[in-house]
Write a structure and sequence with these properties.
heterodimer, A: alpha/beta, Rossmann fold, 3 domains, 22% strand, B: alpha/beta, six-stranded mixed sheet, binds adenosine-5'-triphosphate, binds adenosine-5'-diphosphate, binds magnesium ion
Chain lengths: 282, 271
C-alpha cells in the first residue's frame, strides 16, 4: 500500500514557549502499518499527533515550519471536517472527548453527524461497545463512570468511525491490564481485517511491541530511533532516552551480553521456553 | 490509623461502588490497590479524606469518624493526588498551584520557598514555574499534582494512578520517593494498573473487584496467584510470570531484573 502519512522537516513551537516542542521531524507511514511512538514525558509526542490530525495548526497557533500530509490532504490547507473523515484521534485525557448524556449516544455522535442510516449506526455502535466490553454501560452517563470506563467509551467513539488512520494517545493509560491486552488484540484485528493504519503513543511497551511494525523513539522534539520493535528494545541507546524497556526484554538483553545465545522474542513465555530448552541441552 | 468498617457506598445514581468493605491500614504501611476498571478503587480512596462519606458503615482516620470531619480538616492529614489531573489543577501558574495548599495551611514564607523549589526540581518542572498548568503535557500535569501533594508533606499520601504518562526515568524517581515515604513513617496508598511499577516496591496488596476487597496480603504472595488476579482483570508482572514458567525455586520471586539475572546465570540456574 502507498503511504498515508508524510511529515517533512516539521517544527512547531507553542506561543510563548521557549523551545520548539517538535523539531526537524521526518516520518512516513505506509497504509496498514502499526507504528508505535515512545519517548520521555514532555518530549513532544502529543504535539506531533496534533500536527497529523490537524488540531495544529487549525486550533492551536504557534510557529509552524515544514509540512504534514495525510492521504491526499496537506494538513495545514485542508479543512478540519475533511481531515476528520480520514483521521480519528483518541485524546490523552478521555474527558476531552465525551460529552453526551449516555454512553451509546456519545459513541453514535460522530456517525450521526455524517448522516449514516440509523440501522447502520445501531449495528456499529453495538459492535464497538462489544469490542470495548462496555455493553452494560450503554445507558449510563459518561461523566458518572470511572476513569478507565471513560477511556473505553472514548476509544469506542474513535473506532466506530472506522477512519483510514487511527491515532491513539496513550490509549491504555487508564485501562486495567486485561482490557489493555484486549485492546492490543483489537488493534491487530482491525488492521488485519480492514487495513486501518495506526499511530499509537504508549509507555507500556510490553503491550504493543508484539503487534507493532515499527517503534519510533522521540526525544526533545526530535526523532532519534526508528526500526523494528525487537531491534529497538535490544538497542542500548533506547534506555538512555528514558523509555521503559520491559523487564523481560532487559533481562534478555543482559543474558545475551553474558553470552547466552538467545533469539529476539518478547514476553516471559517465550523467554522461559528458550531458557528451559537451553537448560535441557546441558 | 485508617479503618473501614463494613463500608458500603451508593452513588446518587443508585450505582453501588463499595460493598461491605472492611480494611485496616496501620501507620507507616504501604498499600497498593489493584482491580478492574470500575472496581471501586477511586471510590475507596476518596473516603479517606472525606470527599465521599459512607452510605453505610464507618471510616475512621486516627480514630475519628470522617462523617464528623470536613474535607478541609482531613486534608491536613491526608493528601490525594487524583487520577485525573484536570480535576485538581486550577491556578494560573505552576508555582501558584504548588504553593496553594502550603499558603492555606499557613506555612512560613521560607518553608514555602524551600518546599516549592524542592518539589519543582524533583519532578522536572522548574522550567515551567511561570507557565499555566494548562500548557503542560499530560505527564507533566500528573507530576504537578504529585509535586503539590508531596510539597506539603501530609501524614497519609494517596496516589491514584501516579505513573500515567510517565517515562522510565520519572517512574524510577517516583519509586524512590515512595520508598522514602515508607522509611520516614508515612502511610502510603497507591492505586495503580501498572503492576510492573508496584511489584518491586513489595507493598501490601489489596485486590478489588466489583466493589469488594477480594484479597489482601503481601504483593509477593498475591502476585503469584494468576487465577486470583485474573478475576480482577489484573496481569502478573513479567518477571513473576517468567519464574513461574521456569518452574524452579518457586519460593524465590525476583525483586528485580538483576535478581533474576543472578539466579539464571548463577550456580543453580540454567546459565
Ligand atoms: N460520579 C459517579 N456517579 C455514579 N457512579 C459512579 C461515579 N463515579 C464512579 N461511578 C461508578 O462507581 C464504580 C466504581 O468507580 P471507581 O471510579 O471507584 O472505579 P475504579 O476502580 O477507580 O476504576 P478505574 O480503574 O477505571 O479508575 C463504577 O461502577 C463507576 O461506574
Ligand atoms: N497547549 C500547550 N501550550 C504550550 N506548551 C505546551 C502545550 N502543550 C504542551 N506543551 C509543551 O510542549 C512540550 C511537548 O508537550 P507534549 O507534546 O504534550 O509532550 P508528550 O506528549 O511527549 O508528553 C512540553 O514541554 C509541554 O510543556
Ligand atoms: Mg502526551
Ligand atoms: Mg479510578
Amino acid at each position: 500500500m502507498g503511504e498515508i502519512v508524510r511529515v517533512e522537516n516539521l517544527s512547531f513551537r507553542y506561543p510563548e514557549a521557549a523551545k520548539f516542542a517538535v523539531r526537524d521531524f521526518e516520518l512516513t507511514i505506509k497504509g496498514g502499518e502499526i507504528v508505535m511512538l515512545a519517548g520521555p514525558s514532555g518530549c513532544g509526542k502529543s504535539t506531533l499527533l496534533r500536527t497529523v490530525n490537524g488540531l495544529i495548526p487549525h486550533m492551536y497557533t504557534g510557529e509552524y515550519l515544514g509540512s504534514v500530509s495525510v492521504g491526499d490532504h496537506k494538513v495545514s490547507e485542508a479543512r478540519m471536517s475533511e481531515l476528520a473523515q480520514t483521521v480519528g484521534l483518541l485524546f490523552q485525557n478521555p474527558e476531552n472527548q465525551i460529552f453526551m448524556f449516555s454512553v451509546e449516544r456519545d459513541i453514535a455522535f460522530g456517525l450521526e453527524n455524517l448522516a449514516v442510516p440509523p440501522d447502520e449506526i445501531r449495528a456499529r455502535v453495538d459492535e464497538a461497545m462489544r469490542q470495548l466490553g462496555i455493553t452494560d454501560l450503554a445507558q449510563r452517563a459518561p461523566h458518572e463512570l470511572s476513569d478507565g470506563q471513560k477511556q473505553r467509551v472514548a476509544l469506542a467513539g474513535v473506532i466506530v468511525m472506522r477512519p483510514r488512520l487511527i491515532i491513539l494517545d496513550e490509549p491504555t493509560s487508564l485501562l486495567d491490564p486485561k482490557t489493555a491486552v484486549e485492546l492490543v488484540e483489537l488493534v491487530r484485528r482491525l488492521r488485519d481485517e480492514t487495513g486501518i493504519t495506526f499511530l499509537i503513543v504508549e509507555h507500556r511497551l510490553e503491550l504493543l511491541v508484539r503487534i507493532a511494525d515499527r517503534l519510533v523513539v522521540m526525544s526533545e522534539g526530535k526523532k532519534v530511533l526508528d526500526g523494528r520493535p525487537e531491534e529497538i528494545l535490544a538497542d542500548e541507546r533506547a534506555e538512555a532516552y528514558g523509555i521503559s524497556i520491559p523487564p523481560v526484554s532487559r533481562l534478555r538483553n543482559q543474558l545475551k551480553r553474558d553470552g547466552l545465545p538467545l533469539e529476539n522474542g518478547f514476553g516471559p513465555d517465550e523467554l522461559a521456553e528458550e531458557l528451559n530448552r537451553q537448560a535441557l541441552k546441558r | 490509623m485508617i479503618e473501614f468498617r463494613d463500608v458500603t457506598f451508593v452513588h446518587q445514581t443508585g450505582k453501588t461502588a463499595l460493598r461491605d468493605v472492611s480494611l485496616k491500614v496501620e501507620k507507616a504501611e504501604m498499600l497498593a490497590v489493584v482491580g478492574e476498571n470500575g472496581a471501586g478503587k477511586t471510590t475507596l480512596v476518596k473516603h479517606v479524606n472525606g470527599l465521599l462519606k459512607p452510605t453505610k458503615g464507618t471510616v475512621l482516620v486516627d480514630g475519628e469518624d470522617t462523617r464528623l470531619k470536613s474535607t478541609a480538616e482531613l486534608s491536613r492529614k491526608v493528601g490525594i493526588a487524583f487520577q485525573n489531573p484536570d480535576h485538581q489543577l486550577f491556578s494560573e501558574s505552576v508555582e501558584a498551584e504548588t504553593t496553594f495548599a502550603l499558603k492555606n495551611f499557613g506555612f512560613s514564607r521560607e518553608l514555602i520557598d524551600q518546599r516549592l523549589n524542592w518539589a519543582l526540581q524533583f519532578f522536572g518542572l522548574d522550567e515551567y514555574r511561570n507557565s499555566s498548568p494548562l500548557a503542560l503535557s499530560g505527564g507533566e500535569k500528573k507530576r504537578l499534582t504529585l509535586a503539590c501533594i508531596l510539597a506539603w508533606d501530609p501524614e497519609v499520601v494517596i496516589l491514584d494512578e501516579p505513573t500515567v504518562g510517565q517515562d522510565a526515568i520519572q517512574k524510577e524517581k517516583l519509586s524512590g520517593i515512595i520508598k522514602m515515604l515508607r522509611s520516614t513513617g508515612k502511610t502510603t496508598i497507591i492505586v495503580s494498573h501498572d503492576v510492573e511499577f508496584i511489584w518491586p516496591l513489595q507493598p501490601r496488596l489489596v485486590v478489588m473487584s466489583q466493589g469488594r476487597i477480594v484479597a489482601d496480603g503481601p504483593a509477593h504472595t498475591l502476585m503469584g496467584d494468576e487465577k486470583l488476579l485474573e478475576g480482577a482483570r489484573v496481569m502478573q508482572p513479567q518477571l513473576v510470570k517468567l519464574y513461574q514458567r521456569l518452574r524452579r525455586r518457586p519460593d524465590s520471586p525476583f525483586a528485580s531484573v538483576n535478581d533474576a539475572r543472578m539466579w539464571i546465570t548463577g550456580p543453580v540456574g540454567v546459565g
